[in-house]
Amino acid sequence: MSELQPAYRQPELADLVEHDRVHRSIYTDPEIFELEMARIWGKTWIYVGHESQVAKPGDYYTTTLASQPVIMTRDHEGQLHVLFNRCAHKGAQLVGDDCGNLKEFRCCYHAWRFAMDGRCVSIPLEEGYADAGLTKDDPAASVRKVPRVGSYKGFVFASLSEEGPDLEAWLGGVASSIDNMVDRAPDGELEVVPGVMRYEHDSNWKFFVENLNDMMHPMIVHQSSSLTARVVAKRELGKDAPLPPALEIISPFTESYAFFDDMGLHAFDNGHGYSGGKNSIHAAYSDVEAYNEAMNQAYGEERVKEIFAVNRHNTVFYPSLTIKGAIQTIRVVKPVAVDKTIIESYTLRLRGAPDELLKRSILYCNLINSSANLVGPDDQEAYFRQQEGLKTQGDDWIPLSRDINSDEELEPGHYYAKGSSDLAFRNQLKAWKQYMLAED
Amino acid sequence: MGLPDALLLQHQVEQFIYAEVRLLDERRWEAWEALFADGGTYWAPAAHEQPNPEEHVSLIYENALLRKVRQQRFKHPNAFSLQPFPRTSHLVSNVMIDEEAKDDSPLVASARFIMHEFRRGQPNSYAGAYRYELLPIEDTFLIQQKKATLVNCNGTLTSSAMYF
Fold first, then answer.
1. Element (H, E) at A316
2. Buried-most residue among A240, A387, B34, B61 (CB within 10 A)?
3. Do B58 and A366 touch (CB under 8 A)?
4. pTM (2 decimals)?
């Protein structure tokens, strides 16, 4: 036997995900990561940002799409665009900062100017291109647009592919999670507030999105924070004292298996899904009276009851966006390398709601999503240890088989299982396989 | 000793800050906690010139109750991300008194810091500005607020659990 023989025989791509197990290489192999960037992140709808981040004409906001720098802009006619952040001339990034407001873009290198929709406005000494037949009106002189852009109730997605389902069809059953977050605003509108937290994870992006609807981990991984919060509350405040908001947020992570089972999992096409429904770990937050009044006034009590009865935990818009509608925070997934991922956290204001609601969302974000927080680093540690553990020759396969035969089809394409099921995990990897095997 | 009052105050503030970060490096959390005034807060903003800790996310914003949760968590056997427990070394310099205490308003001091951390086999380095609001109590102080603003507080950060 040659010493150079690889640690395992690389199965064909199609064989990496089976119905009840997944091969470790999809988390560890840099070549598979490159393929994912082309076939998943380079094809499907990827979250770009929220329209409120470019509310005014001339506003721009920079981000990445499948690792490529892009700019979301609002032109002076009020139209939304997503452009590649690349000058049409020699390729320099047009803007280097996060966001701002401009009359037009001016490249730092040779001062080509572009309107906010990417159209070339002027080229210095344009006549120098006369023999080549290039003018500022030539499409080649304009900043290229990302092929497809869609907005669903303010959530802007874009796709690097010319083809594919339209955004609403692609969102399918999880569009209702955006609906419910919007419905929770008395004015029916959301607004991303300033302040983003960028948290580097030294692990594959899939561990993060898979974990969000893994209901078998919270009561284990979050013992050190959640159980401690309960102990400290009892000791410092007394046994039956009401919890302050911060501890109301941390304590429920160690609810019982039965509680998380009861939250349940919902899965849809394209890898999307959510946990919770009628109940979630966000359901028991104290009422804010002024908010309830504003909601009743806006919608009427009956409708408000319906809105608040939808109590979802995490919704995953596979692969790039996860939202918590009940607490108005979102997280955006940015894969960097096979073992490096940046998770960005944003907080949203419910327009028309008292400031207390935003303050609670901010408190939640601080406690759960900050890199220096009490809860998230233990999740991050679990992903890191998976990343390390799966480097071993201990076993090439990871089971997906919890409650494998008990999914319920509630309606066509909408599956339900109790929280402890591997349904979300299987559903995401089913989509992963479809994307990865699709013809180029 | 004949030291002018200003020099003495400067000395007291510096010694207080050095002692404060030393307690962090030596993991003497209870003694560190005792340095805070009632209602005292620890704040690590997530943006430069962040107006306040309520209306904008922060890396850390803790009152006494949350600090107790954090410190108690340090000792929890299942705090996996803290195994092995990180070690830190805080270096403080450029200590200046910006405002002296007056009536009910605290003394305000600023300083620069570097915190080296050794976590999970990796060295990490954090640098930034401290701003202290200190209430004079006899010959020492109590912290009304310690604010630690990292130079990269709005950048991409990895997991951390220690107080800067």
1. strand A311-317
2. B61
3. yes
4. 0.95
